[in-house]
Amino acid sequence: QVQLVESGGGLVQAGGSMTLSCTRSRTILGISAMAWYRQIPGDQRELVASIATNGTTKYLESVKGRFTISRDDAKNMVFLQMNELKLEDTSVYFCNYFNYWGHGTLVNVSP
Question: How many whole angstroms separate alpha carbon 87 and alpha carbon 16?
Fold first, then answer.
């Protein structure tokens, strides 16, 4: 079992910034690849950003240039730095590791 604990969500004004953090309880087979997803109730969960074990990152097209995923392997943590937030970024953000998921943290972008 792996526990993922997210933090850092909340209310932010459009144009503002916010950083999400996720800590995993252990590492499987030395693999540190992780990802952030988001989901609005009733919609499908979508991949926002991922970071591979070798550090390669991928982003949802709509967040490229605004969001940055990073990792601290010593602390088993992954981060999502979100800048220039838009109303459409409002969602519940989930941390993912293999088939494990955090409980999600709400990011609410206000006008």
Answer: 11
Q: Which two tokens stand for residue 21?
A: 């953090």
pLDDT tens track of the chain, all 111 residues?
999 999 999 999 999 999 999 999 999 998 889 999 999 989 999 999 999 999 999 999 999 999 999 999 999 999 999 999 999 999 999 999 999 999 999 999 999
Q: Is the alpha carbon torsion for 58, 62, 63, 64 positive or negative?
A: positive
Query: Which residue carries 């602390």 as its tokens?
Result: 75
Pairing of strands 105-110, 10-13: parallel
Tokens 């969602």 -> residue: 91
Compute the radius of gyration of the chain from its Cα atoms. Answer: 13
User: Using an 8 Å Cβ cutoff, are 2 and 26 in contact?
Assistant: yes
61 CB-side CA count, 13 A: 0
Q: 85 by DSSP, 3-state: which?
A: coil
Structure tokens at 10: 């909340």
